[in-house]
Amino acid sequence: MISAVRLSRRFGSRLVVNDVSFEVAPSEIVALLGPNGAGKTTTLRMLAGLIAATSGTVALGGVPLTRATAGVLRGRIGFLTETPGLWDRLTVQENLEVYAGLHDLSDPGRRIGGLLEQLGLGAQADVRAAELSKGMRQKVALARALLHNPRMLLLDEPTSGLDPEVRRSVRVLLDDRRAAGCAILISTHQLDEAERQADRVAVLDGRLLAIDTPTRLRRLLSTGRIVVRVVGDAGLAAAIGRRWDRAAAPDGPTITVTLPEPERDTPALVRALVDAGVDVLEVRPEMPALEDVYLHLVKDNGPGWRGSTASNDPANEVRL
User: Fold this and answer.
1) β-pairing verdict for 28-33 and 183-187
2) Which residues fall within 8 angstroms of residue 133, CB to CB, at 6 or more apart?
């Protein structure tokens, strides 16, 4: 488990991360979203023990991160930094062999070969890092983070610079790690990736604005509108829908009805449609995109808290 409790970090007088608390459980992927400068990378670096928190605590696998435990705990996590940081004069194979030695792996050749194959790097094994494209360097850095089979992963923009096929292979690889019990925290700007893969999404803008499943976050902007798709002309369906919403009108085979209390009124709407002989294909609530929720949270909470007088009032956060 990855645990952050009331983490804050200042750089001089500038407060970058403010009173952030969350956990990532084993077999869970949490995506950390936020605008540039929101403190995502700083949070990851504190969790990895690369920089000290100004205040707050970190625990990894149930062990508090301190000066005394930092060395051991760093060996238990895989950390993909914002920049790959490879040795340019060494080949891909040699870069990974160095890290295998640092982790004292008993069978480094097998492990390195397996990761190179999974990430489509087999043909680049003997290529110097300086000759790799940005996407290739990113893949090598990801292989390095996974090399020692860590139980916790901290990944900063893991799919940055990767083409769609490789992004898919990375998703499969991370799904495998999650199934094996790994706790995974991913910082990303790719909202579609977060919605597709993450069990929960955390929105950060210096402080934690919200953390929950993508579905429940999307319900923050629920409109009460129900989309009904029928067989054939939706004119009759629209006429029935106007019992609840005078603006209900057909749009091809679809109508959208705004209900005062969707959970209470949707069954009644469906019964009325069926009783009238309407063949109903689909009934679903109109849900906003995760991008809309993200922009709503960031805009409404804004960066106004930043500075030495920042408030830690929980009422200022969206807690679900």
Assistant:
1) parallel
2) 161
Sheet hosting strand 14-24, strand order edge to edge:
14-24, 2-11, 55-60, 63-64
Token pair of 269 as six digits: 């709407």
- Specify the CATH number for the domain of residue 25: 3.40.50.300
Examine residue 172 and state whether it is found in any structural domain, yes or no.
yes
In this structure, is residue 117 part of a structural domain? no
Token pair, residue 76, equals 């238990």
- The distance between the two most distant Cα atoms of the chain, rounded to a whole number of Å, is 75
Cα–Cα separations (whole angstroms), residue 76 to 115, 149, 304: 18, 9, 37
Helix (H, G, I), strand (E, B) or coil at 186: strand
**Cα 70 to Cα 214: distance, rounded to the nearest angstrom:** 33
Q: For residues 202 and 208, give the distance between their C-alpha atoms in angstroms, rounded to a whole number.
A: 7
Do 205 and 241 have their domain in common? no
Q: What is the pLDDT along the chain (320 residues), one digit of tens a residue?
A: 999 999 999 999 999 999 999 999 999 999 999 888 889 999 999 999 999 999 999 999 999 999 899 888 888 899 988 777 889 999 999 999 998 988 888 888 888 998 898 888 889 899 999 998 888 888 899 899 988 889 999 999 888 777 888 788 888 889 999 999 999 999 988 888 888 889 999 999 989 998 999 888 887 777 778 899 999 889 999 999 999 999 999 999 999 999 888 889 999 999 999 999 999 999 988 877 788 888 888 887 655 444 333 333 333 333 33
Domain that holds residue 170: 2-76+150-218
Q: Are residues 39 and 156 in the same domain?
A: yes
Amino acid at 220: L
Give the C-alpha separation, 88 to 194, whole Å: 31
